[in-house]
């Protein structure tokens, strides 16, 4: 824009913008530019400044000619201009910015400041970002019938420069994210294979900082767009989808309390934007089937070398992926260096092909990076509102058997000495692609198995027959889900996926971060209606002994790992007298038992699910007359310890004391439910007054009368409001009252309150414990320690 076109008419405005006597004041030019960009008034871009002034100030200000180049770019990018000149100008600008971007991703970002990247800062300051956006969108803004066409190379250069500026200059990405028209326009560029990767990378960066999640249904022709992608493009598109289907993290611990969640639920009565986007994806024909094929594709089936090498060349300018490529090329170089001279072809053909053929390790890593994105999307969809629909589809498309076939060669492959490590990370970092793939795989198994009958697809036909044989031997009905499992959809080969997981789990080093995720995945297989056959299947493979070794003998210190093992142990032992017998055989000395108790008592937030399991199991066993049960009851240290009322009361006291309404989260609310189970079972045996009196005595011993029962009263009031919400199912927990009945095994809820109560439904205990009369609960706001039941 010429100098005379400064926004606003009138000599006063021009004088304010240009300084005394019409000459631009150099001292405050940068401030004027920034203010103009924010307000839209006055000096807003470098094209408004005279060429003479820019030349005069360029060397002293160290602008490297960027403002002058932007002036030329502006002139040559007007309607009906020759865009070929624009591309030559961008070729001059691009190296100045890409050098700084390379520094940004290869050095410590903590010390990165605008002063470190003067070129990208200058480019944005003089209106370069807005100008490139205008150039890219110009064909969509013109009303002419014959629209101006922008070449693929010019589009790629614009996108590349925009991305480099985004990562080096604060605020640029957020400004672009605020322009919904530009964000949606970028998706239209993904139809062109030549500009796909650059566009996808920029979109991912922009969506990552966007305050409000976009609606996928607003993307023009989304279904057609997705169907046009090849498998590589679809995998990269999953990186973008991950941002659009995952709930935004508020980053504040206060936001994760149950009080805050309840308040948020009252505000947001309808589905969230992420849930709407998940539904949109599921409506795209063939989408899930293509994801399953990508997830289970073998390395040998991946796209040919030549196309990938071309993609690598494009990626090299895309610094979000440059870290990965840097590591990949390092692996390739190591393989070349370690190759023997004898392997060379005397004719020289081998030397020529080595420049065009991709090393096997790079092919594997390429496939790992793709599968990471795909597994994440499938995992999120499995935890969403359309979970059953997703389950049905991924079972039909044989995701689980396909992953089973990839387990040894790709997912849990042995590491070579040249294990890939991303720049700035180490081999044990969760950011390593190998490690991240394993964790994502385990998270998928956890989501797939949890409370769903399709979990038996993790077994092969022989293992399903084994479950049937266990039920037959125990003279108990076979689980319907086992009988109804479609054998054509289960794993093939000698071992199913669950058995393979158990094998690597037992070999995992003591301090491995995988232990947590492995235990969670196996535990999810057991969650739901308690199945004796499922438990025995795992017990026969030494799982209980492995868990006890990790808790007692390996001196495990990780709270996360211990919590996952306690939870798994609880599911494995619940109501299973054989499991308690095996426990007593392994914990065969008082010294070992004290170590085990010490681990439990070190953090009841972590171990209370096991305490709940022991309490419920003890109650069941006490009502059985079988001699085997009676023998184990008398011999098992764990059951004998929990049988003593003083020990149960001590647990109850501590469980209530470590939680408060204001600090209840999805993680520790299990302590409240465990304390309620203890009191419910006591009420059934007319022992509730004794427990309440014992708690009152403990209050006086602590010289703080009322602090436990008053806190418990507040917790119960909150519990009513939280669990008896209109969208919660309270019938499930009322079946706790059946836990002493002969046929009550399948009626006992699993209390999935620690991790996924919000996904799988709550298990309210109140109607049983509080007498089942909601109106009566509200009338009397007092806790009576002499009553036969708790009344609010």
Automatic annotation (TrEMBL):
Gene Ontology molecular-function annotations: phosphatase binding; ubiquitin-like ligase-substrate adaptor activity
Pfam families: DUF3689
GO biological process: hair follicle maturation; protein ubiquitination; ubiquitin-dependent protein catabolic process via the C-end degron rule pathway
InterPro entries named in the record: ARM-type_fold (IPR016024), TRPC4AP (IPR022162)
Region Disordered, residue ranges: 334-356
GO cellular component: Cul4A-RING E3 ubiquitin ligase complex; cytosol
Signal peptide boundaries: none
Protein's name in the database: Transient receptor potential cation channel subfamily C member 4 associated protein
Species of origin: Vombatus ursinus
Gene: TRPC4AP
């Amino acid at each position: 824009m010429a100098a005379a076109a400064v926004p606003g008419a009138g000599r006063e405005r021009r004088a304010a913008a240009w300084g005394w006597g019409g000459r631009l004041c150099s001292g405050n030019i940068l401030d004027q530019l920034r203010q103009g960009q924010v307000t839209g008034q006055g000096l807003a871009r470098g094209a408004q400044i005279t060429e003479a002034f820019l030349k005069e100030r360029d060397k002293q200000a160290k602008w490297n000619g960027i403002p002058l180049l932007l002036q030329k770019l502006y002139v040559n990018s007007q309607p009906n201009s020759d865009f070929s000149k624009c591309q030559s100008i961008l070729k001059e600008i691009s190296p100045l910015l890409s050098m700084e971007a390379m520094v940004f991703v290869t050095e410590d970002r903590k010390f990165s400041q605008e002063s470190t990247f003067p070129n990208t800062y200058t480019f944005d300051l003089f209106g370069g970002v807005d100008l490139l956006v205008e150039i890219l969108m110009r064909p969509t803004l013109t009303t002419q019938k014959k629209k101006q066409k922008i070449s693929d190379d010019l589009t790629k250069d614009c996108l590349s420069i925009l991305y480099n500026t985004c990562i080096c200059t604060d605020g640029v990405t957020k400004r672009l994210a605020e322009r919904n028209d530009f964000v949606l326009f970028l998706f239209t560029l993904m139809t062109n294979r030549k500009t796909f990767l650059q566009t996808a990378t920029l979109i991912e960066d922009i969506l990552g900082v966007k305050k409000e999640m976009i609606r996928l249904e607003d993307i023009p022709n989304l279904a057609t767009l997705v169907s046009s992608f090849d498998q590589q493009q679809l995998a990269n598109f999953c990186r973008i989808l991950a941002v659009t289907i995952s709930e935004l993290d508020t980053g504040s611990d206060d936001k994760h309390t149950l009080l805050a969640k309840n308040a948020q639920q009252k505000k947001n009565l309808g589905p969230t934007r992420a849930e709407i986007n998940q539904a949109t994806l599921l409506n795209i024909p063939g989408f899930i089937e293509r994801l399953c094929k990508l997830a289970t594709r073998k390395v040998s089936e991946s796209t040919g070398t030549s196309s990938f090498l071309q993609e690598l060349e494009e990626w090299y300018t895309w610094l979000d992926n440059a870290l990965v490529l840097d590591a990949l090329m390092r692996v390739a170089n190591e393989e070349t260096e370690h190759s023997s001279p004898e392997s060379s072809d005397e004719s020289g053909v081998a030397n020529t092909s080595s420049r065009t053929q991709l090393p096997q390790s790079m092919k594997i890593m390429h496939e790992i990076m793709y599968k990471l994105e795909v597994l994440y999307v499938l995992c999120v969809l499995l935890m969403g509102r359309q979970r059953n629909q997703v389950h049905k589809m991924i079972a039909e498309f044989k995701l689980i058997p396909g992953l089973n076939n990839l387990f040894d060669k790709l997912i849990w492959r042995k590491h070579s000495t040249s294990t890939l490590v991303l720049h700035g990370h180490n081999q044990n970092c969760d950011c390593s692609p190998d490690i991240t793939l394993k964790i994502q795989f385990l998270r998928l198994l956890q989501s797939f198995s949890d409370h769903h009958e399709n979990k038996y697809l993790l077994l092969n036909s022989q293992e399903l027959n084994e479950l049937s044989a266990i039920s037959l031997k125990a003279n108990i009905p076979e689980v319907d889900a086992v009988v109804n499992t479609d054998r054509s959809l289960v794993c093939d080969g000698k071992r199913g996926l669950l058995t393979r997981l158990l094998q690597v789990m037992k070999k995992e080093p003591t301090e491995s971060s995988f232990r947590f995720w492995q235990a969670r995945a196996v535990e999810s297989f057991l969650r739901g209606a308690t199945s004796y056959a499922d438990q025995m299947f795992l017990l026969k493979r030494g799982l209980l002994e492995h868990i006890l070794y990790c808790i007692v003998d390996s001196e495990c210190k990780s709270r996360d790992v211990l919590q996952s093992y306690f939870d798994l142990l609880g599911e494995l032992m619940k109501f299973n007298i054989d499991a308690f017998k095996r426990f007593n055989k392994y914990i065969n000395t008082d010294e070992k038992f004290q170590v085990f108790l010490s681990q439990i008592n070190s953090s009841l937030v972590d171990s209370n699910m096991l305490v709940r399991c022991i309490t419920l199991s003890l109650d069941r066993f006490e009502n059985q007359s079988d001699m085997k049960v009676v023998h184990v009851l008398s011999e098992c240290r764990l059951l004998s310890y929990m049988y003593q009322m003083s020990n149960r009361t001590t647990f109850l006291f501590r469980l209530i004391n470590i939680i408060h309404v204001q600090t209840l989260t999805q993680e520790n609310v299990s302590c409240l439910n465990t304390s309620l189970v203890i009191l419910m079972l006591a009420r059934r045996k007319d022992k509730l007054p004794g427990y309440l009196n014992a708690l009152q005595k403990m209050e006086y011993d602590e010289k703080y009368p009322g602090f436990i029962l008053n806190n418990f009263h507040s917790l119960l009031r909150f519990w009513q409001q939280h669990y008896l919400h209109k969208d919660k199912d309270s019938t499930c927990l009322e079946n706790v009252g059946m836990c002493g009945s002969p046929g009550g095994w399948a009626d006992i809820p699993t209390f999935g309150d620690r991790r996924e109560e919000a996904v799988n439904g709550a298990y309210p205990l109140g109607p049983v414990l509080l007498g089942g009369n909601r109106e009566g609960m509200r009338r009397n706001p007092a806790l009576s320690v002499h009553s036969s039941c708790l009344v609010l």
